[in-house]
Amino acid sequence: MAMLNTLPLPDNLVWDNEQDFKPWAFSKQRAVNGALNVQAVALHYGRPIKLTGSWISRSELEQLQALESEPLVPRALTLASQTFTVLFDLEAGGIEARPLFKCTVATPDDLFDLTLNFITVEPV
């Protein structure tokens, strides 16, 4: 079961970009003599985590949005057997929720298509 701190997340969330992260910062440039200078350093944090593919009720969404309203507070994200220290990645969209059905009167049971964008940070 996926969890954000003690808040359970929907079961059908898929880690959409799990294999996209390259754990290296890499640069290359030419010196004035034509030599190629290559530098690489390992990245320990800053991995984006995008979770998609699930629905969430308005009441559950509001609980997540309350956490997102404190964007600099690190959270424990548990996915299967892995735990990450994360922040909401507001540059990537943070919490993205689109209603499944348009309605004029909101209820706590209204469903939303959910995408969560996180970024890993150093544990505190």
Give the domain tally.
Answer: 1
Number of strands: 10
The chain-level structural class is: mainly beta
Give unreliable regions as ranges.
Answer: none
Tally of contiguous helical segments: 1
Q: What's the rounded overall pLDDT mean? A: 95
Summarize the topology.
Blueprint lengths: L2 E2 L2 E2 L5 E2 L8 E7 L5 E7 L5 E10 H11 L6 E5 L2 E7 L6 E5 L11 E10 L4
Antiparallel strand pairs: 1-2, 1-7, 3-6, 4-5, 6-10, 7-8, 8-10, 9-10
Walk me through the structure.
The chain is mainly beta and 124 residues long. It has one domain. The protein contains one helix and ten strands; from the N terminus they run ββββββαββββ. The chain has one helix at residues 58-68, and strands at 3-4, 7-8, 14-15, 24-30, 36-42, 48-57, 75-79, 82-88, 95-99, 111-120. The strands form two sheets. Strands 1, 2, 3, 6, 7, 8, 9 and 10 form an eight-stranded antiparallel beta sheet that branches. The radius of gyration is 19 Å and the shape is elongated. The two termini are 24 Å apart.
Give a brief rundown of this model.
The protein is mainly beta and 124 residues long. It has one domain (3-20, 47-120). The protein is built from one helix and ten strands, in the order ββββββαββββ.
